[in-house]
Structure to design on (443 residues):
């Protein structure tokens, strides 16, 4: 009995030490600013917005002063887009975006994916039609990396999953959106985001394994 | 109760544990747009599921509660020991994993922080009552009833517990490593149940663990 209570006391000591370690780790994590100060491509450095058209698409390309493509928008030519263009949607105002590494948002700052790249659209709200956005991410991600895209829903104060496995090709990523606001890219999953892709396959496989094992164990015992 | 009855009951509980949240996730977002309403409905349905599980195993649970009353101090003491092993082991494994997967530790604490900030009471009920008892019934009671070999029960139920804790979000090989500390936690919880033969023990260990995380997130 005495031995048991000594063990309990040792355990309490272990718990206290663990708590201290966790506290120190947590404090260090809070102190460490997960983002650096390089605000990559600010809108004031925009140089050129060029428009080109194909049979089915309208493409707007934004290049910097060295003629490097910073980002582009591609719209399918459909009725809703034509109507919006007729209503004088000003491209240089509505389609401007900034690529940042930090944003003053509590929800966004609460997540710890320190490789996140924020895409802040100047236009907030629905787009006339689905748009394909192509962005230069060369400074943040390597070719071949697969990224997650999340939407920062300020109204609901939550992060919403949009897409995953977006490949970096030649320094660019491409994704589709229907709504402009603040998004961010990251190479790893944001665990507390809404609508994260669920790895149902793994769970189904494990579920089947569990059932088989349980059935097997029962049959084995009955045979005994 | 014969082995086949235990199997049918256990497999049923296990399948319900997986399928009910899945069905809720499928239909609930189309029923309500409000996060709070959605959370309350989810909470109510999960609570009803827990009640159903308790009803299924009520005889065993009543027996364990009676035994707990008799050996109150012993079980509390053992729970503290197992909790200490759990927290120390979890910490060491997590620290080692941080080298491989740097987001691991911080991500978990950020989930708890954000959930507590948004719906403190609801989350407390969910974590400290519903999730706590449901997981002990599903991963401890069900498995122990069917798997007679104690080592097999401890290791198998521990690994399955680990898979279910993070398996839904595993999309890369790196993230697969995050199963390890949770599997370790599952093994410790199963060991505590096996050694004391009382479901209250893993419940207490888990309760201490939740309290530890809660205090950590509030600190």
């Amino acid at each position: 009995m005495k031995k048991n209570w000594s063990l309990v006391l040792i355990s309490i000591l272990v718990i206290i030490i663990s708590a201290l370690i966790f506290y120190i780790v947590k404090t260090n994590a809070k102190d460490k600013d997960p983002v650096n100060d390089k605000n990559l491509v600010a809108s004031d450095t925009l140089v050129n917005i060029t428009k080109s058209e194909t049979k089915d698409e309208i493409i707007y390309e934004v290049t910097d002063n060295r003629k490097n493509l910073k980002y582009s928008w591609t719209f399918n030519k459909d009725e809703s887009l034509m109507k919006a263009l007729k209503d004088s949607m000003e491209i240089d105002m509505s389609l401007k975006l900034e690529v940042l590494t930090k944003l003053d948002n509590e929800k966004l700052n609460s997540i710890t994916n320190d490789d996140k790249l924020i895409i802040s659209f100047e236009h907030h709200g629905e787009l006339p039609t689905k748009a394909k956005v192509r962005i230069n991410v060369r400074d943040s991600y390597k070719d071949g990396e697969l990224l997650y895209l999340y939407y920062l829903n300020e109204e609901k104060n939550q992060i919403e999953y949009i897409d995953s496995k977006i490949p970096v090709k030649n320094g660019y990523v491409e994704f589709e959106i229907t709504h402009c606001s603040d998004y961010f890219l990251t190479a790893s999953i944001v665990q507390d985001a809404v609508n994260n892709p669920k790895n149902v396959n793994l769970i189904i496989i494990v579920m089947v394994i569990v059932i088989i094992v349980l059935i097997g164990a029962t049959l084995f015992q009955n045979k005994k | 109760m014969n082995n086949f009855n235990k199997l049918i009951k256990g497999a049923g509980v296990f399948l319900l544990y997986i399928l009910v949240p899945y069905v809720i996730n499928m239909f609930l977002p189309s029923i309500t747009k409000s996060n709070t309403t959605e959370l309350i409905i989810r909470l109510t349905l999960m609570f009803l599921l827990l009640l159903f599980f308790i009803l299924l195993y009520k005889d065993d649970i009543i027996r364990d509660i009676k035994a707990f009353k008799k050996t109150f101090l012993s079980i509390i003491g053992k729970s503290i020991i197992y909790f200490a092993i759990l927290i120390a082991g979890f910490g060491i494994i997590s620290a080692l994993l941080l080298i491989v997967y740097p987001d691991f530790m911080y991500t978990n604490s950020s989930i708890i922080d954000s959930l507590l900030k948004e719906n403190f009471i609801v989350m407390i009920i969910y974590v400290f009552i519903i999730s706590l008892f449901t997981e002990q019934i599903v991963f401890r009671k069900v498995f122990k009833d069917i798997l007679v070999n104690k080592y097999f029960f401890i290791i198998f139920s521990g690994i399955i517990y680990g898979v279910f804790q993070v398996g839904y979000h595993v999309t890369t090989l790196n993230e697969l490593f995050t199963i390890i500390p949770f599997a370790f936690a599952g093994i410790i919880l199963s060991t505590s149940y096996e050694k004391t033969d009382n479901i209250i023990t893993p419940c207490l260990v888990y309760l201490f663990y939740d309290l530890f995380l809660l205090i950590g997130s509030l600190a």
About this structure: Residues 2-31 of chain A form the longest helix (30 residues). The domain at 48-186 of chain A is CATH 2.60.220 (Chondroitinase Ac; Chain A, domain 3). Residues 32-45, 88-93 of chain A have pLDDT under 50 and may be disordered. The radius of gyration of chain A is 25 Å.
